Known about the structure:
This protein has helices at residues 42-53, 55-60, 73-87, 102-106, 146-162, 184-192, and strands at 13-16, 19-22, 30-35, 63-69, 95-97, 121-126, 132-138, 176-177, 199-203, 206-209.
Amino acid sequence: MNISIGxxxxxxxAMTTFGPIKLSGYKGHWVILFSHPGDFTPVCTTExxxxxxxNDQFEALNAKLIGLSIDSNPSHLAWVNQIYxxxxxxIPFPIIADRMADVANLYxxxxxxxxxxxxxxxxxxxxxxxxxxxxxxxxLTNGRNICEIIRLLTALETTDxxxxxxxxxxxxxxxxxxxxxxxxxxLLERVNDPGAENLNCMDWFWCYKDxxx
Length: 213
């Protein structure tokens, strides 16, 4: 199945390391659904440790993490236990055991030209209304930057909250931007009195909002 930004996230029920879950049960929260190629692999292990260490940051943003691979639930359990024994870090979020690749195929997480038996490193951002808002895909060989996932989630929440857009290299706390005017009257209003909207404009189409809500 091909998924895309703006579509309703396909619902599913799945067995996880925390027991059975249903995606629709997470309505009202952001969901970061991410796949990994396999348990007991070095890059995936570092990613899961990084996600675990950042879990409180995701929780503060009203976001729930859900991992997934086509490994079995016993394999997931043995792996997370081994991570704990080696590092003292517990994995505080569920990992879906997707042995038949039902969820992986539903979300396009298996790249046929990359590997037939492994999920690539997908990250699906699902908003509280269960709409897909962003999709990141990394190859098997390269781990994800968790700080970038948090940055993008924060940017999406800022956009929703304040009706703004975020420029290149935006970081939380930096000025956001406003979309360009849609009509000529709106253009004139912005040119004549940008201060009315708390804007700092380079030109009529290029304006920053210093203090988004």
